[in-house]
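So, could you explain this one?
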Amino acid sequence: MTFTALVLYFANLLFDYPLQNEFMARLKSKNIYILFVHSAIWGLGLSILLQYFQLFAWWKVFFLVFGHMAIDGFKARELYRPANERGTTRALDNKDFAALYIDQLLHIVQLAVVMVF
């Protein structure tokens, strides 16, 4: 179980960052189709691993893809930030890193749910 969790966690990082190009990262906050494509790559990639570990179920695919869309949609639209700071151009600060940690924590919760149920 620990090995499975580690594999899924590192796959989460791989599918969430390196497989998301600059185009997707920039436009997923403005275009729901691009957000869906990014989420589908992430969710389907993890679903293949769930199949390998014999944990696959169709509801998990939907849970992963649409859950990822909701989480990244909030992050991409800067809803983790105070309203007076949205849309500003500036260097990364602690609030940006907090948003990334919240994002990853929620994705880890998703992975825990699909492993347990």
In short: The chain has one domain: 2-116. The helical segments are 2-16, 22-27, 32-52, 58-76, 94-116. Residues 1 and 34 are 33 Å apart (CA to CA).
